Amino acid sequence: VTHVSRATSGRAAFEVLLSGQKIVDVILCDYHMVEGTGLELLWVVRTGQVKSFRPDACFLLLTASGDHETVALAARLDVSGYLIKPV
Question: What is the 3-state secondary structure (H, E, C) of 9-70?
Fold first, then answer.
């Protein structure tokens, strides 16, 4: 890994992706964030709302919750991986 971009909220992560200033190969995203959830960001990516970003890019969701509903929704949104904290 040579470059890492960080965002402090769902909105900030979306803005990083929209800016298109850096090529993003992998998104490692927490489920619980201010101004949006990891699943909302995954939905934005997978539905192609960020034109400068590949909708099939690797998206890893990190969460303390392993409940069936969250896991099932992430799977329906085609999450690449699901990590339960602590990792």
Answer: CHHHHHHHHHHCCCCCCEEEEECEECCEEHHHHHHHHHCCCCCCCCCCCEEEEEECCCCHHH
Q: CA 50 → CA 44, 64, 85, distances in Å?
A: 7, 27, 28
Query: With 90 as the cut, is the pLDDT of residue 43 above it?
Result: yes
* Sequence-distant (≥ 6) Cβ neighbours of residue 71 within 8 angstroms: 82
* Beta pairing class for 32-33 and 26-30: unpaired
Alpha carbons 9 and 6: distance in angstroms, whole number: 9
Burial class of 60 by CB neighbour count within 10 A (0 to 12, 13 to 18, 19+)? middle
Global pTM value: 0.87
Report the candidate in 39, 34, 76, 33 with the shortest Cα–Cα distance to residue 60. Answer: 39
